[in-house]
């Protein structure tokens, strides 16, 4: 099986998961979230946690659980002119229940549309303030005649719990790499079923590998309150996280963006920027800012966990963001597969970035007599030999393989292959972790 | 009264002071300097110092005092062809007295003009070498026929004193911010009546404010020898200066230039560059060099006082510099007002750049329940909320408000407002000075 | 004699040496190498070392000595169609002896040409694998008819020794500056008779100077194995090398390139980049990479000797590189003279970069009364006065003359002249080495 075919397979696997999860009405609590974690759990075993409503978590409190059966706006003729069954985006997420008749005038303040994108339904939430509302296309809004409407949101807000799921792959040490994805958005594909799918496929791939240095933790939790709850429930464990990433919007066709940690030059920052720089795909690196996804929480001053963010389309910066335009056609198996490859390479760097020492540091060792060097002197040498010379020169105990790859402007894979070869020939020994 | 009107008032106030000071023949000593300090003293109370001729000051000596009553060159018909009463620039500043008849040929080496700017009178000095001379327009020079001239400079060079004035506004600490302006140039508006006027208006503005952290020192002294004399007379006090600025050429229409301290990244450097970067006005930042104005003396290796320089037109780099072209038309109330605003903002940063600590550092505090966050989740947040998130994230005891503003690329004012709000809600406490 | 004439003289002297050395068939061992060192030794006294075959040197072993009398390929008519006597490049350097008749088909794998440069003979070596071969122009290769050929390489590979030569000019300290040139290439002018010639002329020039701070070591050795042998034989001495340069390709008309040490910001890096930046000649600075010339060995992790590389044409990056196109017409006296000037200036910086202390650090000393400052105040000052102000301001014990020159963006020569003048007037004292 060729690498390309494999990648296609992974791409199809991810897209299929996005398709399966797309119809579910998720929120930061409730049965849609549980159903989602159940589907993920059929691919990677999940440990599910339920944290009860009212529990204090850091500066926050776990909210009441929200569930919804149905919602609609019916016109005077009893026709559903806005119908939750057609799209769960039609209801402002976390709407309190309502069932009454009212004039369009009274209803109007509860309606949200996008005048600039008249065919798309916006996505709106009201988690922490009791409110209700409907989202609809601007065309729908324009077509509503004056008159009386029957408005119904058949939801419940009640004592329950907040749910999150974790999958852990043990490593040689209990130091961890965290892959965190928010899993609370309803029918939006790129944000963030794409992140979920890439995370799941990485977990499946890594489960097949041996000799993992770091423990891998995959967290699937609602945005903000989910990360806050996890941090509150796992204060000690959080100290073991050495590197982390939030994954968002990884199925669209935008170039990659890596958003740095607040530290700005931590190992995950160096790994991600190097992988993107040597991958050949277009990408940009942006500085941390305290907005976006759950990297905000991990990077807060009390925790300062080195969590960066990998994305394609950027939070709030593409038209489909938080609208019904973020649908199944907006993401593709090919882009998911590309994102998977980049993520896998970043984690590979973190797992394998070790420091070696040149055992023959005085001058260059004679590679030729070890069969590691072309015999006939000409003008240039192959890339692997150049990588070996870099590894030999910089393996002075102060440079890790990633340091060497960055300085040599060679891929981490090339440097690692060179190091493996030199270890086999006794020219390099592992010095530190 | 609107801010714009206020600013206009300040601009007019400054321009009026420039107009009042313009006709006076100043030098590094003498009655013109005293008269100038007297006029300043009617706006801000000045402590005047007289340091006697011959006193050793650092490596220098206070020179003889120079005063001048009149000067002229008369042609054969007894007409004043060059007349000190028309412009005090006509006399080389610090000229020794002379009164004799001489041929044009003998007079010629004492005449200075600007062939490239035939309508302007140059400004020349000879403080430390006994000499005399006249400056005149190139057109005047060309029109002088051969023949005999009566040459008179009715000046005195005698034991006297060097004068400077200071205005001090006490602060919470006796650590100081120094605003230093040279006040020795005769009828030149931009260099440096503009600097004097901006300094005076700042002193008046700050006198109306309460709760000043740093003591403010406003020094009005002749260039070079004045700063040297002040430093010699105030060795201990100089150690208390934490930040400083020399002000020059602040009334012209050039973009702003900030010249760094020799340290290059001191607090005044960071404050000035940040204010200029976020002010919306065109500006450039240049590195320190040991030439220009009195920042040379403050930054000398024995003192190393962090004094930068704020200017519009740059020392020696615009045609009007040190010529009669630097007149009342070359400066304007509007530009002076703009300079005043920048200076006030820089000093405001220095006075208010404190370090706070987030009292709820684990995750983001829930701003929503404190009324500090918009209720309905959408795609972006207002600037003040963003500023609050920055302040919360970086208030880890290691970042001051200015550090945060720089990293966030937000104005210091926005960050300070956010910090004030967070302090009010108990989310932030002052940690250090 | 004007400076220009002197430079012309040096250029002619260097070109003459290149001409004299050009015909000799050099290699990494053997009589051609000895003859070359003999010719150099008539210009600068050389200490010659012979290191016997089989001796272990670092990770390597001194190889058998190679000598060659003659070599040819004769066609069926007995005519030499490839003739060592016409160009020593025709034989793969270090070829084992061969003398037999063979078909073109059997001979063909031993023939090397440059299809892209059909008139040039390539230069090939096989030092560490027993092989033989001929290099010829592609036109020659094309013109060989099928048939039988007499192939002869009259060489010997036998126990002998590896030869290198050194010239040492003692300094005040036994800390050293190393000028290292590889001297093993046969008839190639730019690579590296140019480097040899520039090194020799520098040694002659410096021998005429007094008061040298650092001991100068000029090493003429075969590439790679020569540097390795020297390092193996001089382990203790190597620790005394503070700064060094390899010289290569200094006679062609490419812009200068300076290749940094692995440290990247050592004194030689700062000296070379500053001299090139202020010299007015086009140049580029490139980062270290572990390939090229003997800087590879000096910068290896066991030694980490700060050796950069000065060149014009870059290793492997110009068409004439390692071909017969690198002939006497490819280099010129003028370019050699220019290279000599740059090298001399770099060494001059290293020899004279000292740290002084301002004896009058409080404010600027009054230069005027010492005759060091123009008397009449105008708008600008001459360069030497500006250099004096820079030296005074930064001579705080933390900045060397080179640090000052770099910050001031003035030539080292200007800063040094200013410092000399200030020392004469007692305003500066030597503080450290």
Summarize the structure.
3 copies of one chain form a homotrimer. Chain A has 433 residues and is an alpha/beta fold.
Protein architecture, described:
The structure is a homotrimer of 433-residue chains. Chain A is of the alpha/beta class and 433 residues long. Chain A is built from 13 helices and 19 strands. An eight-stranded mixed beta sheet of chain A has the order 1-10-12-11-13-16-14-15, with helices on both faces. A four-stranded antiparallel beta sheet of chain A has the order 5-4-9-6. In chain A, strands 18-17-19 form a three-stranded antiparallel beta sheet. In chain A, helix 8 crosses helix 10 and helix 12 (401-408) packs across helix 13. The longest helix of chain A is centred in the C-terminal third of the chain and has 20 residues, at 333-352. The first copy, chain A, starts with a helix and ends with a strand. Chains in contact: A-B, A-C, B-C.
How far the N terminus sits from the C terminus of chain A, by CA atoms, comes to: 34 Å
Specify the biggest β-sheet of chain A.
8 strands, mixed
Most extensive contact: B-C, 33 and 26 residues
Which assembly state applies to the chains in this document? Answer: homotrimer
Radius of gyration of chain A equals 25 Å
Q: Find the structural class of chain A using helix and strand composition.
A: alpha/beta
Helical fraction of chain A equals 25-40%
Q: Which percent band covers the strand fraction of chain A? A: 15-25%
Task: Work out the helix count of chain A.
Answer: 13
Average pLDDT figure of chain A: 95
What is the tally of beta strands of chain A?
19
Please tell me what the overall shape of chain A is. elongated
Q: How do the strands line up in the largest sheet of chain A?
A: 1-10-12-11-13-16-14-15
Low-confidence stretches of chain A: none
